[in-house]
């Protein structure tokens, strides 16, 4: 229907009830359209809830801090634990954040969080609470002594990360979850417990060369057993250098060295003379450990005058096992090199090659030996890659199933 009033026509839709205003052309002037005056309602502000609530005390250090948002998405969460920021993880729609690491025992914990509603309006919340003090004993972690002694050096692609604890850890899963390995070029890796006081991390194969790997052991407040808490965190950084891998064929008395996948040296060698396990060089994947320009090597379990006793000053020696196997310069006559095996179990090289190998050696360089009937044990030195990946995972508290 239409109604005429003052020269204007109002047309009312009988189906929607919406009014449309138009000009009627009553002489001389231009036309103008009316404006829709329906006002959009603003969305309610997002609500942020932090658990534990502010003012709480006696909070367990290993209890997670949870932040939730309703009516919006979390924009930022900052958790300060004893002066250290603790990271966490958001769920898929960013309506929840959960701390990843344990808190400092006996400390004031501060949490600040913000969330945005659909209109972009920001809401904030904060909480401060106290964690309970560690009432029992504390445990600490230290890096393997050999690795610690070579801090600051460039490491090989077989680098193991070795942690030793000063007290027996019974809650291995909790401790393992607190160990964070960050690599610039990430690869699959896992921890393996050799006993309650030692855990070792290795890559499934080797680390990619030329990168930095960082360990952050978030141990503070972690419950390692009944009335046993982690005392402090541990951080270490490792610089992985070039890929130096040596392949030794004991039967052929030859060593081939590859640098970043390219063969750079062929070396005539002489290995253990055999006849007994003591004088047989172990086959398998070894890793370079320590090195020294001068090492006095003596026969194990023998003294002067005993059959088989020896004491020799050896130069340019690179250790590859805990059983006393080294790659080193030949003492005296080089007649065996490339021809036969005549050592007490070590790998002998010509003087020039031994010096070259010594200088380019990095801790963690793989040394792959074949050709003998004695295999190196996975816990003999750093021979961790001797263990199959499936068996390695069985030694993890998190991946064994």
From TrEMBL:
Compositionally skewed regions (Polar residues) per UniProt: 123-135
PROSITE patterns: LD_TPASE
Residue runs in coiled coils: none
Keywords: Acyltransferase, Cell shape, Cell wall biogenesis/degradation, Peptidoglycan synthesis, Transferase
Pathway: Cell wall biogenesis; peptidoglycan biosynthesis
Record: active site: 328 (proton donor/acceptor), 346 (nucleophile)
Molecular function GO labels: acyltransferase activity; peptidoglycan L,D-transpeptidase activity
Gene Ontology terms describing biological process: cell wall organization; peptidoglycan-protein cross-linking; regulation of cell shape
Annotated GO CC locations: extracellular region
Region (Disordered): 115-135
Residue ranges of every copy of the L,D-TPase catalytic domain listed in the record: 244-370
InterPro entries: Big_10, LD-transpeptidase, LD_TPept_cat_dom, Transpep_catalytic_dom
Keyword Transferase: yes
Protein name (database record): L,D-TPase catalytic domain-containing protein
């Amino acid at each position: 229907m239409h109604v005429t009033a003052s020269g204007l026509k109002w047309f009312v839709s009988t189906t929607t009830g919406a009014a449309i205003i138009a000009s009627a052309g009553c002489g001389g002037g231009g036309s103008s359209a009316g404006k829709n005056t329906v006002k959009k309602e603003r969305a309610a502000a997002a609500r942020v809830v932090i658990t534990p609530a502010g003012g709480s005390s006696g909070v367990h250090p290993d209890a997670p801090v949870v932040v939730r948002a309703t009516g919006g998405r979390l924009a930022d969460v900052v958790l300060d634990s004893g002066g250290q920021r603790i990271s966490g993880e958001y769920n898929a729609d960013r309506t929840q954040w959960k701390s990843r690491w344990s808190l400092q025992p006996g400390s004031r914990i501060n949490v600040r969080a913000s969330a945005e509603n659909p209109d972009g309006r920001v809401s904030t919340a904060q909480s401060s609470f106290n964690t309970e003090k560690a009432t029992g004993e504390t445990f600490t972690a230290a890096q393997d002594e050999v690795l610690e002694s070579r801090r600051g050096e460039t490491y090989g692609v077989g680098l193991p990360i070795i942690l030793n604890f000063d007290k027996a850890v019974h809650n291995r899963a909790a401790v393992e979850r607190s160990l964070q390995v960050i690599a610039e070029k990430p690869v699959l890796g896992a921890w393996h417990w050799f006993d309650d006081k030692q855990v070792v991390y290795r890559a499934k194969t080797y680390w990619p060369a030329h990168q930095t790997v960082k360990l952050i052991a978030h141990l503070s407040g972690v419950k390692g057993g009944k009335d046993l808490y982690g005392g402090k965190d541990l951080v270490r950084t490792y610089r992985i250098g070039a890929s130096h891998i040596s392949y030794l064929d004991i039967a052929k008395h030859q060593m081939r060295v590859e640098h970043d996948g390219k063969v750079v040296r062929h070396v005539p060698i002489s290995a253990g003379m055999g006849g007994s396990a003591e004088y047989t060089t172990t086959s398998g994947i070894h890793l370079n450990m320590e090195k020294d320009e001068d090492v006095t090597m003596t026969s194990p379990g023998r003294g002067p005058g005993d059959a088989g006793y020896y004491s020799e000053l050896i130069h340019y020696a690179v250790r590859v096992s805990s059983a006393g196997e080294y790659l080193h310069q030949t003492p005296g006559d080089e007649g065996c090199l490339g021809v036969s095996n005549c050592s007490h179990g070590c790998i002998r090289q010509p003087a020039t090659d031994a010096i070259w190998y010594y200088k380019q050696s990095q801790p963690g360089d793989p040394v792959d030996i074949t050709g003998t009937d004695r295999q190196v044990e996975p816990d003999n030195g750093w021979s961790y890659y001797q263990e199959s990946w499936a068996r390695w995972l069985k030694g993890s508290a998190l991946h064994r199933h």
